[in-house]
Design brief:
The protein is mostly helical. 80% of the residues lie in helices and 0% in strands. The chain has a single domain, classed as Na+/H+ antiporter like fold, CATH 1.20.1530.
């Protein structure tokens, strides 16, 4: 009996030990699992903390970017943007001021009779010949009625209006003779190329008609403008009209032809122009600024001056004349081309815009030895930026006009493709 009792006790202890081992192992396993879980949780928490910190950093950077820069930086950036938008006008004004400070530099030392009247002008029009796509002229050549009206209005109607107005101003002693003659010379110039393309596109006009009007005007202006100027104002001094036309043909038409031939027959030219379009336009602008600088150096050296009041009055009168001829052109276009709203928009710009890059060399060629040559360019310097300002302000209203008219006529509006300014002619 005692032996059985001992065996029973031993079995009982064995059972107790076996039942105790299982919970211990389970506890160990659960402890390991808990440690792993804690590590995972901690790692996730750490990762979330890092992501939160990264998010905070990015949000802080965004806040710093959204915050306005200091006042000097903002002012500098605004000046830079303003210069980019109006670089040509600002450069022209600066060149006139520099010419006033020391006239002999541009009048003699820089050899203007070679560098200004020949090299700069020819370089400008070689670039124009490279950039103008004359193959697009065929797209608008069938609009002969519109093209004839545009050229007639731009050359004849505008010049007649300005001629009569300027002679009245001289008769009542309201404006000096030189500034009044400058207004007439400005009115005889052909249409600009790049500006009419940009404004026509932004106003949803007829792009092909704009190209034809601009290029045809640039080609004919070499002969038509001198004839009109000498008809209205007369021959002043020793001006040989045949000699003037020969000089203009060599300085303007020959470089244009060379540029066109290079574009047509030398394939790498087109790639070069496409790659360096902005740089080429910049070269044109600086050539024009240099020409204006030399012209005004000659003007200031001879002692020809005009009052500030006369300049302000001329500026105001030029703006009034520009708005008036635009209104007259719009009335005529609406009567003659009532069912062609796109042509009306194109004609509004083609009938009234004047080129400064061809105008300054023309004035310089006709009045090369005239001390008033610089004064003659002032009305053009006023007209040129104002036609861009007024045209840009009218563009949204003209887009609405074209859409409304085409809806009434039951036409589907065409997709307008944005054109870049290829030349400053």
């Amino acid at each position: 009996r005692n032996r059985k009792q001992e065996q029973t006790n031993i079995l009982h202890k064995i059972k107790q030990s076996s039942t105790c081992k299982t919970p211990i192992s389970m506890c160990r396993n659960s402890t390991e699992k808990d440690e792993k879980t804690n590590l995972l949780v901690n790692s996730k928490t750490y990762g979330m903390t890092n992501s939160v910190e990264a998010t905070d950093c990015s949000s802080n950077e965004a806040k710093l970017q959204d915050e306005e820069p200091p006042w000097p930086s903002r002012f500098t950036s605004q000046l830079r943007e303003g210069y980019k938008a109006h670089s040509l006008l600002i450069s022209m004004v600066a060149s006139i001021i520099l010419a006033y400070v020391y006239p002999p530099l541009g009048a003699h030392y820089l050899h203007p009779k070679i560098t200004s009247t020949w090299v700069s002008v020819m370089l400008m029009f070689i670039i124009s010949g490279l950039c103008i796509k004359t193959e697009e002229l065929s797209q608008a050549s069938h609009r002969m009625g519109f093209n004839i009206f545009v050229q007639f209005f731009n050359y004849v109607v505008v010049s007649l209006v300005v001629m009569v107005f300027s002679r009245l101003l001289i008769a009542v002693d309201f404006l000096p003779q030189s500034l009044a003659d400058g207004m007439v010379i400005c009115s005889c110039l052909p249409v600009t190329v790049s500006m009419i393309l940009v404004l026509t596109t932004s106003s949803n006009g007829d792009d092909a008609a704009a190209v034809f009007a601009a290029v045809f005007g640039a080609l004919t202006g070499t002969f038509v403008t001198p004839g009109l100027v000498l008809t209205y104002i007369g021959v002043k001094g020793n001006i040989d009209i045949i000699r003037v036309l020969i000089k203009l043909s060599i300085r303007v038409l020959l470089p244009l032809l060379v540029g066109q031939l290079l574009q047509k027959f030398y394939a790498p030219t087109q790639d070069f122009v496409a790659e360096h379009r902005k740089s080429l336009k910049g070269v044109q602008e600086w050539c024009l600024v240099f020409i204006i600088y030399c012209v005004f150096c000659h003007t200031f050296e001879t002692g020809i001056e005009t009052s500030v009041g006369s300049l302000l009055l001329m500026t105001f009168l030029q703006i009034v004349v520009l708005i008036s001829v635009m209104a007259l052109a719009w009335v005529c276009l609406r009567v003659l081309f009532r069912d062609e709203p796109k042509l009306c928009v194109t004609g509004l710009f083609a009938c009234t815009q004047k080129t400064i890059s061809l105008g300054v060399p023309l004035i310089n060629a006709i009045y090369e030895n005239d001390p008033n040559a610089g004064i003659y360019t002032l009305p053009l310097i006023v007209w040129h930026p104002m036609q861009l300002v007024i045209g840009s302000a009218m563009a949204p209203y003209l887009v609405h006009f074209v859409k409304q008219q085409e809806d009434q006529l039951g036409r589907k509006p065409l997709i307008v493709q944005k054109l870049s300014s290829e030349s400053i002619v």
